[in-house]
Amino acid sequence: MTTRATRSPRRRTVVALAVVLVILAAFVIRLVDIQVVNANGHIADSRGKTGMAIALHGGRGDIVDTNGEVLATSTMLYNVQIDPMLAAKGINETDAAGNIVYDDDRKPINVPWPELAAQIAEVTGQSAEEVQAIVDEAVAVDPNKRYALIKKAVSTEEYRNLAVLGMPFLSFPQVPSRTYPDGAVAGNILGFVGSDGEPLEGIEALQNDCLTGSDGERVYQRGADGVIIPGTVVEDPAVEGGTLKLTVDTDLQWYMQQLIAEETDRMDADWGGIMVVEVATGKIRAAAETATVDPNDVGASEPEDRATRLLRYSYEPGSTFKPVTAATAIEQAGLTPYSTVVAPDRMVFDNGAVINDSEHHATQNLTLTGGLVTSSNVALSQFGTTVDPATRLEYLQKFGVGQGTDLDWSGEPDGVYLPTEQWDNQTYYTTTFGQAFTVTVPQVASVYQTIANGGVREPLSLVESCTLADGTVVEPDLPEPERVIEKETAETVGLMLENVFAQGTLADDIKIDGYRVAGKTGTAQVIDPGTNKYKNNIFFTSLVGYAPADDPQYVVIAVFNEPMKQRMSSANRSVFKKAMTQVLTHYRVMPSESETPLLPVTK
Questions:
Q1: Where's the Penicillin-binding protein dimerisation domain (predicted)?
Q2: Average pLDDT of the segment spanning 480-507
Q3: What stretches of 267-314 show up as alpha helix (H) in DSSP?
Q4: Rounded to an integer, what distance in angstroms lies between the CA atom of residue 30 and that of residue 36?
Q5: Where are the alpha helices (DSSP H) in 231-354?
Q6: Which run of H or of E encompasses 81?
Q7: Alpha carbons 341 and 369: distance in angstroms, whole number
């Protein structure tokens, strides 16, 4: 039987237990609030007081050539930061095992700041007084000062030597740095990055998605003496950028840069360039020009020399596009290499247009082959206008006029042309010999790659692949090869271009012993931006061809802007021959096993 006396202690026990449970529940709720609900806020508060967060930079990926030779790479430098408040107090001396050394009175021996400053200065190359003053001045302004900079961007070796000193008040934030081991080699193509690491030009900018790494962070807690508290380090690792592989061959690129620099100077030209394209693939193996830039020292170059002119300069191609007219007439008008026209050196057409050849000559009965060999504007005007304007424009577009290239280079012009309804009497004829529309050097190279490749255009490319940090290889998304003209047409035009080299006025100057070579010169008038008229006796000269013509392997185009010593395309014969000879030698291309079959020039 329960009595009042027995109920009272039991009630008190229940009440006490209830109170304990309430208190315990409150603690649990608070614990959950601290550790779960508001954990991030509390962590942030603790970091602000005793925590450190150090950025870990994902290094920018390397750029390598087609053989894997490094053209651009990232190195990690380090800023040397110091906590002035802690440094001013000095640190306890330790022995080789890291144990604190005591004096006779069992007091820790303190190493004063001036002595520590001398140790730091010995590594950084500064004077002890200079390092000491950085902390002394900071503490003089604010005794609780927690940040000062000892030195910017020290090397990895210096960083390691400083870290070995074991001074807890030193920290070493990473500073990514970009270097180019081969200096100016391919500099105009590679581009460069700014002091903040942002890409500013060239491949560095265009392929930034591949090259850029992802930053991480290292977070840790430290005690009042600056020492890291064991077990508090949490790291979110950085991810390195991808490795970008180019189509460029560094050794060939170096040679072409030396060659074009010498020849541009010899011809007293405004600038010059050489491009080498592999016929079967469309890969650009060299793209050299003057002047070039050393991405390690961009400031040493004039602003106009820090990008690539070779990929951005737009011009009227002149005679280098006459083979396009020949191909059009062969496919659409049934002409052959033996088709003829009467060609004086000056002709007034029925619509009043007047067309002149570059040199005076007697009236000739030229074949289509002869029109290319002698580079007769009068002959090509007659051959070309056997096809209606709309079809002629269609073929120009098929060969890339107004279409740009697949390089997708920033600032690369597509090229301009007039719709046929805007062709005046003169334009009706000048479009047959490379005037009244514009192209770029890569577009001209692409035309000859197409002819050399049996009429199939391979997209031009400068990038082979991007290998990501996890090993994934990503290749560029290029369009499929495209048939532009029939194989038989390409072979016919190619044979005529061989005859240009074999029978033309420059034949002896550009002959390469043992190899059949096909190609064409071009002397394009240059527009004066001030007057919008052609400059008087000033030209953009070019010579483009491929070899071996019986088994085409490589296209070479050499250009000069406004050469003064020789103003016509004859200025390009030496540089083209040297460039093509080097290409054939470099790639150990086998000589031709036959001679060029000669076609009649006149009838």
A1: 58-229
A2: 96
A3: none
A4: 10
A5: 250-266, 322-333
A6: strand 70-82
A7: 11
Nearest residue to 544 via CA among 387, 439, 458 = 439
Does pLDDT of 224 surpass 70?
Answer: no
Burial 464-495 (b: 16+ CB within 10 A, else e): bbbbebeeeeeeeeeeeeeebbeeebbebbbb
Residue 208 near residue 29 (C-beta atoms within 8 A): no
Burial of 55 (0-12, 13-18, 19+ CB in 10 A): exposed
Cα separation, 595 vs 328, whole angstroms: 27
Q: What angle, 0 to 180 degrees and rounded to 10, lies between the N-to-C axes of helices 441-452 and 487-503? A: 110
Q: State the Cα angle at 206 between 200 and 207, rounded to 5°.
A: 115
Domain ranges of the chain: 54-240, 250-586
User: 344 burial class (0-12, 13-18, 19+ CB within 10 angstroms)?
Assistant: middle
Six-digit token string for 145: 């000062």
- DSSP-assigned letters across all residues of 545-580: EEE-TTS--EEEEEEEES-SSS-SGGGGHHHHHHHH
Q: Please, are residues 292 and 260 in contact by the beta-carbon 8 Å criterion?
A: no
pLDDT (mean) for 558-587: 96
Q: What is the distance between the alpha carbons of residues 125 and 58, in angstroms, rounded to a whole number?
A: 28
The residues, any chain, with a CB within 8 Å of residue 320's CB and separated by 6 or more, are 434, 444, 447, 520, 521, 522, 542, 544
329-380 pLDDT, tens digit each: 999 999 999 999 999 999 999 999 999 998 999 999 999 999 999 999 999 9
CATH fold of 250-586: Beta-lactamase (3.40.710)
Bridge partners (DSSP) listed for residue 315: 439
Structure tokens at 263: 């020849």
**Residue 140: left (phi > 0), alpha (psi -120 to 50), or beta?**
alpha
Residue 483, strand partner residues: 456
Q: Which amino acid is at 453?
A: N
User: What's residue 551's pLDDT?
Assistant: 97
Q: Residue length, the chain?
A: 603
Tally of CA atoms within 13 A in the half-sphere of 283 that contains its CB: 15
Q: Parallel, antiparallel, or unpaired: how do β-strands 456-457 and 364-367 relate?
A: unpaired
Return the amino acid letter for 149. Answer: L
What is the CATH code for 54-240? 3.90.1310.10
How many alpha carbons fall within 13 Å on the CB side of residue 213? 22
- The token duo for 132 is 């000491």
In this prediction, residue 9 carries a pLDDT of 66
